[in-house]
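S., here's the first fold you wanted:
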Amino acid sequence: MAKCAICEKSIGTGNKLSVTRSHISKRTARVWKANLRTVKAIVNGQPKRIKVCAKCLRDGKVKRA
């Protein structure tokens, strides 16, 4: 399972709803995946490839190598 190395964000699950004539007629399972990027970052003083979500990259929580 893919997971962010910084915030541990992973897959979210729920239902996709089919709306017909103002009634919810069908529910099917669906998955929301995290927007993960593989980056080379400094971890414990060593450069290492880790999977990080785009939000952590944008917020500057990752020190890139």
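And the second, which I think is the more interesting of the pair:
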Amino acid sequence: MKFSTRVDKNIPAAELFDAVANFDRIEHMLIRRGVSVTRGDDMPDGTRGWNLGFDWRGQRRELHLVLVQFDRPEKYAMTGESKPFELRIDMTAVALARDRSRLIFELEVKPRNMRARLILQTAKLGKTQIDRKLSARVAQFVDDAMAG
């Protein structure tokens, strides 16, 4: 299942990219929201990764994220894995004008088991509402990333 949204800002694209690619700031934002963050920088292939732990709907969830693409000042991508899902996050900063840019956020979620497949089938019924919530959350994330 794929989700995408875009956020327009009145700053240069390189500045927008630097704000959303500041991983130290993002880690602190997650920690303030109660997420346990452990870096996995010492991976054998030199890839940057994180292990995240958080409570969602009354259960502890674990997510492992790996940075798989980093093309400054345009795009970065992460892949993630939890017990029920695989995911890919792409963030692309596009210049609309000299001092105006757009962040394109794309999220693809794939099930890893039958229960996850059923969850995604149910989510498809409310995709419009999920898209609205995702757009609001990504816009808030961009604002928070630029504020620090």
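Why I say that: The beta strands are 2-9, 36-39, 49-56, 59-71, 75-81, 85-97, 100-111. The chain has one domain: 2-147.

Talk tomorrow,
H.
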